[in-house]
Amino acid sequence: MWEPLHALGVGPGTRVAVAGLGGLGHLAVKFAVALGADTTVISRSAGKAEDAGRLGARDLLVSGDQDRMAAARDRFDVVIDTIATPHDLGPYLRLVAMDGTLSQVGHLGPVTVETLDLLVGRKKLSSAGSGGLPVTAAMLDFCAEHGVVADVEVLPSARVNEAIDRLGCGDVRYRFVLDMSDLG
Ligand SMILES: NC(=O)c1ccc[n+]([C@@H]2O[C@H](COP(=O)([O-])OP(=O)(O)OC[C@H]3O[C@@H](n4cnc5c(N)ncnc54)[C@H](OP(=O)(O)O)[C@@H]3O)[C@@H](O)[C@H]2O)c1
Fold it and tell me: Which residue, judged by its Cα, is nearest atom 45 of ligand 1?
């Protein structure tokens, strides 16, 4: 999540939207907020509004709310799309401002793009991985300086099946860590 925000020059005042509030998304919000960006979450679920606010986002847009999505057209300099499943990029490209970028980092695989969604507003579509060792080192320094950590729920390893079941329902904020000390 650091890599696309860093590569796209996100800083104070950049208008950033993070689509999908999960493992990647919650860290994208934390990074964007710590970088000083004006940060919004886009989620399927209005129930994540409290979490979005706690993470420092100014607002949560529900992706199924056509009126609010239309009102947010051309609003964001950078949209980080962490949605894990194949989906239409159109609604997210339309939120990107003139000369802005949609960074597609969630679903990794073929996508279909309506080129008019890029043409109108001279928008860019990109992606990102880890950025390699130097960028990872810079990311860790930034985390240490700004207190950015992943939100995890620690379970004893004996409860691994519970973790798997809850993962299947998307019921985790935002990663499980299995404590293996119960095996010793
Ligand atoms: N680019 C990279 O280097 C990189 C690195 C690691 C992982 N990934 C990829 O990133 C993706 C996300 O990973 P993650 O750990 O963040 O997953 P995750 O914790 O499951 O979160 C993904 C989020 O996507 C949204 N989502 C899930 N299913 C959806 C659906 N059917 N329709 C619309 N939205 C949906 C949900 O957000 P809401 O509930 O808020 O809508 C969910 O919280 C994975 O596909 C993974 O392969 C990429």
Answer: 84
The pTM assigned to this predicted structure is 0.95
Work out which ligand 1 atom sits closest to the CA atom of 3. Answer: 3
Contact 16, 92 (CB under 8 A): no
Question: 48: CA distance to ligand 1 center in Å?
Answer: 14
d(Cα 117, Cα 22) in Å, to the nearest integer? 26
For residue range 127-183, list pLDDT tens digits in order: 999 889 999 999 999 999 999 999 999 999 999 999 999 999 989 999 999 999 999
Question: For domain 2-146, which CATH number applies: 3.30.360.10, 3.40.50.300, 3.40.50.720, 3.90.950.20?
Answer: 3.40.50.720
- Residue range(s) in the chain whose domain bears CATH number 3.40.50.720: 2-146
Pocket test residue of 82, 102, 172 for ligand 1, highest count of atoms within 8 A of CB = 82
Q: Kindly give the distance from the C-alpha atom of residue 89 to the centroid of ligand 1, in angstroms, as a whole number.
A: 14
One-letter amino acid at 47 equals: G
